[in-house]
Amino acid sequence: MRKIGYVWDHTEGSHMILLHPSKGRLSVPRHRELGRGMGRLRFISIVILLALAACTSPTPTHTATPTPAATATPTSTGTATPTATPSPTTSVTSKNGCKDGQLDINKSRLEDLKKLIHIEEERAAELIKLRPFRSVDDLTRVSGIDPSRLEDIKNQGLACVTN
Questions:
Q1: pLDDT of 74 strictly over 70
Q2: 133/11: higher pLDDT
Q3: Fewer CB within 10 Å, N or C, the chain?
């Protein structure tokens, strides 16, 4: 599973919940009627491949946004003087020190925190109770987040802490 980017997160009933940093959660059945051994493994592999095929869509191509043309601004004499219209800018970092699209673990809602790898509802609730965090590394205070899971969270790139 790791070869295609999925990491085991937890078990819900008779299903394994696998996580992928960009594709999200995947539920894989572990039913007894599937039997043991290679048949079961083959079945799980097929389910994952089908899920990947369903999740995979062509990557959208980003086209450059054209810079607006100069517009004419009338002057008091009635003649038009061309002035450039400012092009929109996007900031890489917002006011709170996190990059755009990142989740501040000290301010995000429970539903948003569940977008982080290895953070399901129970851990998100505990994370909220343990606030504030001085850095993403402090997430090891949350039960079940060991150094390897912390590394996965950091590699996902979504979690951040206000400066």
A1: no
A2: 133
A3: C
Q: Give tens-digit pLDDT for 57-70.
A: 444 444 445 545 55
Burial class from Cβ neighbours inside 10 Å (0-12, 13-18, 19+) for residue 104 reads middle
Q: When comparing pLDDT for 95 and 42, which is higher?
A: 42
Tell me how far apart the alpha carbons of residues 5 and 113 are, in angstroms, rounded to a whole number: 21
Question: What's the number of CA atoms in the CB half-sphere (13 Å) around residue 128?
Answer: 13
pLDDT per position as a tens digit, 117-130: 999 999 999 999 99
Q: Does domain 103-160 have CATH number 1.10.150.320?
A: yes
CATH architecture of 2-55: 2-Layer Sandwich (3.30)
Buried-exposed string 24-63: b where 16+ CB fall within 10 A, e elsewhere: eebebeeeeeeeeeeebeeebeeebeebeeeeeeeeeeee
First-to-last alpha carbon distance for the chain, in angstroms, is 36
Retrieve residue 15's tokens. 């299903």
